[in-house]
Amino acid sequence: MAIATINPTTGVTEQTFEPHDAAEIERRIALADAAYRALRLTSFTQRAEWMRAAADLIEQEVDDVARLLTLEMGKPLAQAKGETLKCAKNMRFYADNAEGFLAYEALENPAAVNASRAGARYEPLGVVLAVMPWNYPLWQVVRFAAPALMAGNTGLLKHASNVPQSALYLGSLFERAGFPDGSFATLLIGSAEVEAVLDDWRVKAVTLTGSEPAGRSVASIAGRNIKKAVLELGGSDPFIVMPSADLEKAVATAVTARTQNNGQSCIAAKRFIVHTEIYDAFTRLFTEQMAALVIGDPFDAATQVGPLATKSGRDDLAELVDDARMNGASILTGGTTPDGAGWFYPPTVIADLHDGMRLVLEEAFGPVATLYRADTREEAARIANQTTFGLSSALWTTDADDEQFFVDELDAGAVFINGMTVSYPELPFGGIKDSGYGRELAAAGIREFCNLKTVWKA
Asked: Which SUPFAM superfamilies match (predicted)?
């Protein structure tokens, strides 16, 4: 895949970039390794000063940065601004909390281990490779970069090939904020070059957000090299609605949860599992509101759903819908690829699914919602857990027993009750099963790429 900005609204190639050659890749790895040896010796106070400066820069540049995100991957401009400002919030969160998260952990009773003093300390690992997707071009990267840099690690970014300008912006941001040269550098390379970079002895670990196949590939390389990996992969998150739910709020939130970021979010609700008592009412309201969404130019303030980021992504989504249609599913709204420029796909609602359809088990990465009827909470949990994914989930109920049942039973990295899944700096984020392993954000996120070193003194 060429490294290029291709406007998804028009299909026009705006700018292409030459990939880095072997010499430039080597130069950047060497620079990152040297920067690590300097950065690890700096204080948390100094790193926090630089991190807050990076947050200031991204806030000052929010309008230009948001336009860049919308140009490269098509999200509505207001959402692009929200993503940019969320990055600044995350930077400040780790600037404020990194030292506490990584504080020395003293054993309260060292005599129990025959010591006068004992405990554990967190130390950075070194250069960490980040392999990142296009759907949140800044946020996906910053939620790794902020804690990694605050811990004293350095980063190499292999971004998706269709967001090179976003990648280059991030590659310069932290240096402009004051971090040592090479602390966070972008590699303009294709997927085929990832293996050689991860094989390099100076690269100590890897984090990847992306597809399940990409995760399997990177995990196998990391495993061969005995290097730490954190994987945040696909999701087919359930959105469960029980009879006691506030139906109007549940429907309105469901529409947002399915169509945010033009439906291209790993943690977007994708499968809507509704108790039979309210299924018909939910389906009617949900379908009406999905059909009423405004599709168009993401730079237009009236637009609620823009284009998909790539032509191949739209083609893949259309294939899933067509497979369901051919196998007897009911298309309640949408479901047809529009004519004209750009990679648009309408908000789509599908019902009457069965096990022979790809949509039942595969991730729909776009504004396509699938509806399931459940007669009992046990059946709802079974449907929710039937995919190989386990990223997040949402539950709508005011019944305390139902709430506890689903918190206990759902196979997921998170359960959001009476709301949609959102990533917060304060809460750990990640999945189980084929959705990956490891955690980002909160204290867990900064500790992933640290050596927990035991210290014992007689």
From this structure: ALDH-like
